[in-house]
Design brief:
With 297 residues, the chain is an alpha/beta fold. Helix content is 56%, strand content 11%. The structure holds nicotinamide-adenine-dinucleotide.
């Protein structure tokens, strides 16, 4: 299959699209995502250097001949660290892997006069290969000088989506901030209600097990990363407050025992989803069948 051929290519290396490139420096490269990109660049024949937390005293030496600098540090430190990169060679590509895009992109354009591009890999560090994974990018400056990089990602198997930083961050407000926050609150609620998880699982349908898995998996990951993602932008809090407000309105409807209002709202949402309601019903049946097969193994 395609997946297998990509993962076997992982072992033997990838074609190098820009063999003339001077060294790539990954700032924060000892971190989870930084290590993944280090491995992929090295497998493609690029020379990679790491600028870690304790390396700033020799930053000039590490950065002076960089062909590309990739910033991959904790979100809340990103803009301050970008601001330190004010001595890069003028043709050096400056890029970042941050889960938010507007602030870091602005900071990169301000500190560096050369090529700039913002990246957001839509995957975590534990993927076996980049086949079919999505990398979102936002153009910054001199796009002609980093087309090879976007093509290099495609050679790794990734698919690319171009978007403006503002649209990206608006989308992430719903896709990341609100969703992770509702999972967080649901987890807090479960912990305080303190039911027996085994009993919940023995009573649950596959769809509830999936829901429990979606929530539980959050708490197997890094609290700092999710705090940073949820609190990364003021519009996230505004969105979460609107959700909270609608939750309150829906509770009032329950207090009134107003089934007519419930049905009316239900119908509005149904028509908002349109054909997707049916599409999602079919798609979730497929997922549930798979989930069911794998839990019975
Ligand atoms: P991480 O905490 O594993 O790695 C961050 C690294 O930065 C660490 O090695 C840390 O020592 C280093 N660091 C801290 N301060 C530094 C400094 N002053 N100078 C240099 N290095 C410093 O985090 P991560 O999960 O790899 O995330 C890195 C970036 O990738 C973040 O912007 C995050 O939004 C983005 N991202 C992460 C994921 C994910 O699932 N992990 C997914 C998409 C995007």
């Amino acid at each position: 299959t395609m997946r297998e051929s990509y993962s076997s290519e992982n072992d033997s290396g990838f074609k190098c699209l820009n063999p003339q490139l001077r060294p790539i420096v990954i700032v924060g490269g000892h971190g989870q995502l930084g290590q993944l990109f280090q491995r992929m660049f090295e497998l493609s024949g690029y020379q990679v250097r790491i600028l870690g937390r304790d390396d700033w005293h020799r930053a000039d030496e590490i950065l002076h001949d960089a062909g590309m600098v990739v910033v991959s540090v904790p979100i809340h430190m990103t803009e301050a660290i970008i601001a330190k990169l004010d001595q890069l060679p003028s043709d050096c590509i400056l890029t970042d892997l941050t889960s938010v895009k507007s602030g870091p992109l602005q900071a990169m354009l301000e500190v560096h006069q050369g090529p700039v591009v913002g990246l957001h890999p839509m995957f975590g560090p534990n993927i076996p290969s980049l086949a079919k994974q999505v990398i979102v990018y936002t153009d910054g400056r001199n796009p002609e000088s980093y087309q090879w990089l976007l093509e290099q990602f495609q050679i790794w198997g990734a698919s690319l989506n171009r978007i403006s930083a503002i649209e990206h961050d608006q989308g992430m407000t719903l896709i990341q901030a609100l969703r992770h926050f509702t999972s967080f609150v649901y987890g807090v609620h479960l912990a305080e209600e303190d039911p027996q998880i085994e009993q919940l699982m023995s009573l649950s349908s596959p769809i509830y097990r999936l829901e429990l898995a979606m929530v539980g998996r959050l708490f197997a990951q890094d609290a700092q990363l999710y705090a940073d993602i949820i609190m990364s932008a003021p519009q996230n809090l505004a969105m979460i407050k609107r959700f909270h407000h609608r939750f309150g309105e829906a509770i009032e409807m329950l207090e009134r025992q107003d089934k007519e209002a419930f049905k009316q709202a239900f119908g509005q949402v149904e028509s908002w989803f349109g054909d997707y309601a049916q599409y999602f019903l079919v798609e979730s049946q497929g997922l549930l069948r798979q989930a069911n097969d794998s839990t019975q193994r």
